[in-house]
Design brief:
Belongs to the shaker potassium channel beta subunit family. One of its GO terms (molecular function) is oxidoreductase activity. InterPro entries: K_chnl_volt-dep_bsu_KCNAB-rel, NAD(P)_OxRdtase_dom_sf, NADP_OxRdtase_dom. It contains twelve helices and ten strands. By secondary structure, it is an alpha/beta fold. It has one domain: Alpha-Beta Barrel (TIM Barrel), CATH 3.20.20.
Length: 336
């Protein structure tokens, strides 16, 4: 495993991390989840990402149980706040001071820790004054409940506003967590240049595009049994838009590219996002330990310029790169 600094801070994190977005508490049961977490630890992964909304808080609980007994100082644990949790009442969502303060306490209890290394705004809240949100995060940092603050899927303008307030309030805004893969590059035009200017890293999710970039989904064929595309608990909802024959045919052409680099297709996808020097870590998942191990082996792999060019040629206009897509990820209303 190799490590990178998180934004303009002294914190190092593993450049391949493990996240439990649509696995723990839904697709994968607790015992299997613990096996996957142990596989991540064995592979040298020290950075673990979750959120209170994942499986309506169950994912945090499962991750906390799986990491119990590990040396806390050797881990970097990330979680997030914004989306509805619990009974989903009128104050059980958003980035109000009330919801943030109540949510951090719940997350720490479920994760069985006194602090998280990174606490993240899961989206931008258009209905709460940004000053209120950032003041709440400043207080959480001063209380020692979070060491650093990050955001997720914020636009370049939102990053500038958040960074300015954080600086005025005396804490660091060090990261942004966007979707990023060789198929989805919308952050490259505006978010990445702004982040570099401000000292903010990307903590990217879906580098393997929900497993599509592994090549296991074949054009004209039914998805493999037990894959995310067949998950009845919501996993299939996130992947179905990618299961188009013309795209799957292009992805199959990446197999010899990966082979020439001595990589699996999953490793090629993870190594690709890590070529962006603004990316601090690629969050990978996995419902089986061998998937976790395979993903982690992408750490430190360097792709040649020729390989990068070939990938661009194969994917062509299948790549999504419109910067405006970032602004569409945050609900304009908490009830939306």
């Amino acid at each position: 495993m190799e490590f990178r600094y998180l934004g303009n801070s002294g914190l190092k994190i593993s450049e391949v991390s493990y996240g439990n977005w649509v696995t723990h508490g839904s697709q994968v049961e607790a015992d299997a989840a613990k096996v996957c977490v142990n596989a991540a630890l064995d592979a040298g992964i020290t950075t673990f990402d979750t959120a209170d909304v994942y499986a309506n808080t169950a994912a945090e609980k499962i991750l906390g149980d799986a990491l119990a007994g590990q040396r806390r100082e050797s881990l970097e644990i990330f979680t997030k706040v914004y989306f509805p949790t619990g009974p989903k009442g009128h104050n059980d969502t958003g980035l109000s001071r009330k919801h943030i303060m109540e949510s951090i306490n719940g997350s720490l209890s479920r994760l069985q820790t006194d602090y998280v290394d990174l606490y993240q705004c899961h989206r931008f809240d258009y209905e709460t004054p940004l000053e209120e949100t950032m003041q709440a995060f400043a207080d959480i940092v001063r209380q020692g409940k979070a060491l650093y603050i990050g955001v997720s899927e914020w636009t370049s303008d939102q990053l500038r506003r958040g960074h300015k307030l954080a600086t005025e309030l005396g804490f660091q805004l060090v990261s942004n967590q966007p979707q990023y893969s060789m198929l989805y590059r919308v952050i490259e035009g505006e978010v990445v240049p702004t982040s570099k200017e401000l000292g903010i890293s990307q903590v990217v999710f879906s580098p393997i595009a929900q497993g599509v970039l592994t090549g296991k989904y074949k054009p004209g064929q039914e998805p493999p049994a037990g894959s995310r595309a067949t998950d009845p608990n919501g996993g299939s909802d996130f992947i179905k838009r990618l299961l188009k024959d013309d795209l799957l045919e292009r992805i199959q052409k990446l197999a010899p590219v990966a082979a020439d680099e001595g990589l699996s297709m999953a490793q090629l996808a993870v190594a690709w996002v890590l070529t962006n020097d603004n990316v601090a870590t690629a969050i990978t998942g996995g419902s089986k330990p061998e998937q976790v191990t395979d993903n982690a082996a992408a750490a430190g792999k360097k792709l040649s310029p020729e390989t990068l060019s070939t990938i661009d040629e194969i994917l062509g206009d299948a790549v999504e790169s419109d910067p405006a897509r970032t602004a569409q990820t945050s609900p304009k209303s908490r009830l939306a």
